[in-house]
Design goal:
about 160 residues, alpha+beta, Lipocalin, 2 domains, 8-stranded antiparallel β-barrel, 1 helix
Length: about 160
């Protein structure tokens, strides 16, 4: 009798998780990272910037539209190279050419304005679109860093 009860409970949990997974997939299939995102500093866990992500011709691009400056922060990307060198941080495009691939967007790049380095990038929505998992990496995805950005209203 107890075995039947345990089997029933296990089956019920499995059905519940399966239904939740299907609902989650339906939400993520229609959700988009287009909008405003608050970046969080890896070490202090404090807000650092607001990034606006836009879609242009099926690709995602993101620019810094507001910063939360700390003492000693630079207002230009002095470490950047090429056409981004010494450009103001506000307005700086830091994400470009991400394309939708299943439940994530990848194939583009992300710039870390703090060190001026550019990385391959992929992003995916989390928590019903309230968080954005942002991964920058070299070569392949295992060698990199992930941040979680928070959905934000327009600044």
């Amino acid at each position: 009798m107890k075995q039947n009860l345990y089997a029933f409970l296990a089956l019920s949990l499995l059905i519940s998780f399966s239904a939740f997974g299907a609902e989650s997939a339906a939400v993520s299939a229609t959700a988009t990272p287009v909008g405003f995102w608050k970046t969080i500093d890896d070490s202090t866990h404090e807000p650092r910037a607001i990034v606006e992500i836009k879609e242009v011709d099926g690709k995602l691009f993101g620019s810094i539209i507001k910063t939360f400056p700390k003492e000693g922060d630079k207002t230009e990307c002095v470490e950047c190279s090429g056409d981004k060198k010494n450009k103001p941080i506000i307005g700086l495009e830091i994400i470009w050419d991400l394309k939708k691939d299943g439940d994530e967007w990848n194939g583009g790049q992300i710039l870390d304005p703090k060190n001026g380095k550019t990385y391959k990038a992929k992003i995916s929505l989390q928590d019903n679109g309230e968080k954005l998992k942002v991964r920058g990496f070299i070569g392949f995805s295992l060698l990199g860093r992930t941040q979680t950005w928070l959905k934000s209203s327009a600044p």
